[in-house]
Amino acid sequence: MSTSGGQTSVSPERRFFELLGRALPGQVLYNGDGGAAAAWLDSLGLELPNAHWQMALPPALAAALDDLLISFGGTHRGWQMGDLRPQLSGVITGPPLGRCVVQWDGAEHFNPYRLSTLRRLGDLVGPRFPLRTHAGYCISSRHFAAFWQSSKLPATLLPGGPPPTGTGQFAAVLARLRRRLGGSSYVRPVAGFRFVGGRIAQRAYHDALLDCAHLAAAWQRCGVLPVLRVAVWDVVPEPDDSGHQADFEGAAKGLMEVWRQGKSGGLGNTDAGDRCIRGRRL
User: Fold this and answer.
1) pLDDT tens-digit profile of 64-93?
2) Measured at the alpha carbon of residue 158, what is the angle toward residues 155 and 164, in degrees to the nearest 5?
3) Hey, how many other C-beta atoms are within 10 angstroms of the C-beta on 59?
4) How far is the C-alpha of 20 from the C-alpha of 110, rounded, in Å?
5) What does the DSSP 8-state code read for residue 281?
6) Residue 101: beta bridge partners?
7) Among 22, 54, 111, 177, who pairs with 49 as Cys (CB 3.0-4.6 Å)?
């Protein structure tokens, strides 16, 4: 929350969770309210680990995450339990949408690393969000420009032409620019990802962990369903959509319908959720 000219400005994320809470009274906990969502997970004995080998996942899923980690240029070495781990936006605690995490994804989440996780895991995790739409946010030029800006990278260094779609191609772009990127913490090397752009790769890996968390043994015992994700562009005007206002009410209702359709998983394998998102002009 910020103030400008004496008026209070509410972030799109908080506004969305306020409306979600009205639609599901007593069932929505927003982590921006004193860590309420994380405390609820803790009350169930659950946590969000920072590495997939800490999660007791099915072998095929663990192997897929291992492949992603290596393809990103990551390593199994240098990890510590206290390192940065997936960030939680909120939770729903019961019916009709079921006990689950609700995750808000800002512009900084949509890039070639995230695209790789969506493509690799979509058929394995039964996503309850419009996967194809979110993948599209990773590859369009205007969304890539918004990602670049949100990562505090100089606009003058934004690559021209079509945005990179492969992680190797993207890593090469950042490596070429490393001396001109300054000290941006958004591209710094981090534990397990010791290269320029490591923090970007780590964020996508963390998103993948959250996509898979419901299949971890402890989460299954607690009856936690797949994560419900909402991208900032599912709710607010897309980049360069000047003149269009955020339709939070319509977006919240539309996304809840998407989520209901995907309650049993597999939404990423159908077009229904993507049509629901594309059909609204926000």
Assistant:
1) 999 999 999 999 887 765 566 788 999 999
2) 150
3) 7
4) 23
5) -
6) 91
7) 54
Q: Report the Cα 168 to chain-centroid distance in Å.
A: 21
User: Going by C-beta distance under 8 Å and a sequence separation of 6 or more, which residues neighbour residue 48?
Assistant: 41, 85, 86, 88, 209, 210, 213
| Residues contacting residue 59 through CB under 8 Å, at least 6 positions apart | none
Pair 76, 209: CB distance under 8 Å: no
Closest to 213 (Cα-Cα) out of 230, 228, 199: 228
Q: Which residue has the tokens 């590495």?
A: 51
Task: Return the structure tokens found at 60.
Answer: 């095929």
Q: Which of 265, 258, 2, 8 is nearest to 133 (CA)?
A: 258
Q: In this structure, what are the phi and psi dihedrals at residue 129, rounded to the nearest 5 degrees? A: -150, 160
Distance CA 65, CA 129 (A): 20
Strands (E), the chain: 2-4, 7-9, 28-30, 90-92, 100-105, 228-231
- Token match 């072998």: residue? 59
Boundaries of every domain in the chain: 11-74+87-278
Per-residue tokens: 72: 């990103």
Digit-coded pLDDT (tens) for 15-63: 899 989 988 999 999 999 999 999 999 999 998 888 999 999 999 999 9
